[in-house]
Amino acid sequence: MKELKLIEGRNTGFPNAIKALRDNGSDLFTFDMDDNRTYLSVTIPVHKYFV
How many C-beta atoms lie closer than 10 Å to residue 10's C-beta? Predict the structure, then answer.
């Protein structure tokens, strides 16, 4: 998400990412993590226009 310039390097820009997705009419991202916190996955859905 940092490379897409949606958030800052310290993950302080989540409000910016949420605003950009809402302004675009996109669904919000989701997080997935296992109970041991060995991974974190972020899913940004494809905009409905492109589906």
Answer: 7
- List pLDDT tens digits, range 1-51: 667 666 666 666 788 888 889 999 999 999 999 998 898 898 988 998 988
CA dist., res. 45 & res. 34, Å (int) = 20
Report angle CA 12, 25, 44 to the nearest 5 degrees: 55
* H or E stretch at 17: helix 14-24
Question: How many angstroms separate the CA atoms of 33 and 51, rounded?
Answer: 26
